[in-house]
Design a protein that fits this description.
With 184 residues, the protein is of the alpha/beta class. 25% of the residues lie in helices and 29% in strands. It has one domain: Rossmann fold (3-Layer(aba) Sandwich), CATH 3.40.50.2020. The structure holds inosinic acid and magnesium ion.
């Protein structure tokens, strides 16, 4: 394996770089088929979306606009606080637009439940949710993603945009973090 001082903190690899690449292309193709005539706006949920979003929009090869929103619900822990706050709002009007929300992982559902209602209240014509990962075992809010890359077990995962305390986002694969890292 190539050099990395992050691999040592990983218990096991869940999804390889190749697994992810293949699935992101499938998602991009499906989104192209459904949105090519809709002039959609991708809204990425920062910071976790940044790598997935970059790959997905290039995989879709579709005329579209990109926007970002930042929310916080985690305070460096591994569980959702349930309270979602917007820390950086959209910079453009979304009235009447078809919105494709791009998220790294759907966990408790608190973030996407809040965002979906928020974007509808801002006048979006439709909301479609794309999440790279889905952890259905942990759902607290009634929210279902329209496109899911992979279902994952109830373990804390990092890499390909996903962090623990802002680290590991730049790993090219997705892995399960060794529990001793976050119980330190
Ligand atoms: P939710 O609001 O609980 O659905 O959580 C959504 C956010 O929690 C995601 O956008 C991630 O930032 C974070 N999150 C949830 N599970 C994990 C995980 O296993 N690894 C890293 N981040 C996670
Ligand atoms: Mg996130």
């Amino acid at each position: 394996m190539a050099k990395s001082n992050m691999d040592q903190d990983i218990l096991k690899v869940l999804l390889s770089r190749e697994d992810i690449q293949r699935r992101v292309q499938e998602l991009g193709d499906a989104i192209y088929d459904n949105f090519r005539d809709k002039d959609p706006m991708f809204v990425g949920v920062l910071n976790g979306c940044f790598i997935f979003m970059a790959d997905l929009v290039r995989a879709s090869q579709m005329k579209s606009e990109l926007e970002f929103i930042s929310v916080s619900s985690y305070q460096n822990g591994t569980r959702s606080s349930g309270v979602v706050q917007i820390t950086r709002d959209l910079q453009r009007d979304i009235t009447g637009r078809h919105i494709i929300v791009v998220e790294d992982i759907l966990d408790s559902g608190n973030t996407l439940y809040f965002l979906k209602n928020y974007l509808l209240a801002k006048g979006a014509a439709s909301i479609t949710i794309v999440t790279l990962l889905d952890k259905p075992a942990r759902r607290e809010k009634p929210i279902v993603a329209d496109y899911v890359g992979f279902e994952v077990p109830d373990e804390f995962v990092v890499g390909y945009g996903l962090d623990y305390a802002q680290q590991y986002r730049n790993m090219p694969y997705i892995g399960v973090l060794k529990p001793e890292i976050y119980s330190k």
